[in-house]
TrEMBL record:
Annotated SUPFAM superfamilies: Inhibitor of apoptosis (IAP) repeat
Domain BIRC2/3-like UBA stretches: 377-429
GO MF term list: cysteine-type endopeptidase inhibitor activity involved in apoptotic process; ubiquitin protein ligase activity
Subcellular localization(s) per the UniProt record: Cytoplasm; Nucleus
Principal place of residence: cytoplasm
Upper lineage: Eukaryota, Metazoa, Chordata, Craniata, Vertebrata
InterPro entries (UniProt xref): BIR_rpt, BIRC2-3-like_UBA, BIRC2/BIRC3_UBA, IAP
UniProt KW Transport keyword: no
Protein name, per record: BIR protein
Domain of life: Eukaryota
Amino acid sequence: MNIVEDSPFLASTMRPSALCDELKYDLSCELYRMSTFSAFPMNAPVSERSLARAGFYYTGVQDKVKCFSCGLTLDNWQPGDNAMEKHKQLYPSCSFVQRMLSVNNLGLSSRSAFSPSVANSLSPSLHSIALSPSLEQVGYFSGSFSSFPQDPVTTRAAEDLPFLSPKLHNPSMRTEDARLRTFHSWPLTFLSPTDLAKAGLYYLGTADKVACFTCGGQLCNWEPKDNAVSEHRRHYPNCPFVENLIRDQQSFNVSNVSMQTHEARVKTFINWPTRIPVQPEQLADAGFYYVGRNDDVKCFCCDGGLRCWESGDDPWIEHAKWFPRCEYLLRVKGREFVSQIQARFPHLLEQVNFYCPVTLVFPFIRFEPGESRSEDAIMMNTPVVKAALEMGFSRRLIKQTVQSKILATGENYKTVNDLVSDLLTAEDEKIEEEKEKQLEEMAS
């Protein structure tokens, strides 16, 4: 198993951490928020650390950040800006901000800004939803079966009703993985359990009846051209899960839109080699589609590619090993699953050559003018340096860091983890220096 050579490794690879065994990849954790800033503009006048400490994570767009709790987005940062002060000023009712006012030490908490009982009943995508206790009739299903939720609700965004506590119809079905497990006896072949679970629905065990874990709305009498999300939205438009899902999809960066559905991905495996020991259904469930050559597959969301499948390989585990930042992976399996897989393979990059030494091809390395026949070329052409380059670190920063290492110890880096650790430290120092420089210029 190895990465296809043209996969965007940086976009889906998390920073290694010494706290890997303990840290749950949850945006309510400051350390995890810090890890999202790997591509944050280095010339930004605010530090990654201050933004993460103030509850923000990086969206991947310019210098735009978003609060994990209230959903507030901020960008266009200016010299002298204080992330926490702006957060408190613009959204004083944010539960995270309010908690900050009474808690001094935030650093390593992996708990949600909600109370523990509420946090345990919410998926990360629902942390900003609050439900109104008012009742509203929901639409009838067009078929012979129709149902009202046992606890029907109408909803508004949390920012409109910050004093209300979130509530779910069936908290035990809050994860997509839990919902998927209910479909073991699902009778239909034209509508996949994956798409239904993704739409917030779980199987009730009778005919083709499903229910939403959030609003409790029930649907059945499915037809071949039905879309799970669309039907959920049409019959229960006020369901908070659907509202949140639609908002997420609008900002969901998908690499291959045509491969978003499970059915579309399965269809690509029509010529899948029968000798390959991994089944198309498994691969499609994990977000992969067949690219038509050898046993190469790609994820429709993160564009991560895998090949060299072997007996016993689990597509979800391989997805989490190589592309832990994939949003589809995180939404379906959850951050805890990804963190567990990452913890099992803490030195994955150093082991790459062991797994598939023949087919792994590092990306083409561009040398600077005059560098190709110099000692610099040798210094920059090691597997460790190549791995760091593919992760997206600045070539100049890598070169400076490697040179410093050689000057100090007389030898190059031997492990990717050591190099990445020093690169992250160097990035932080550079950002702090730039910030101090800008403040000095303002003062003068």
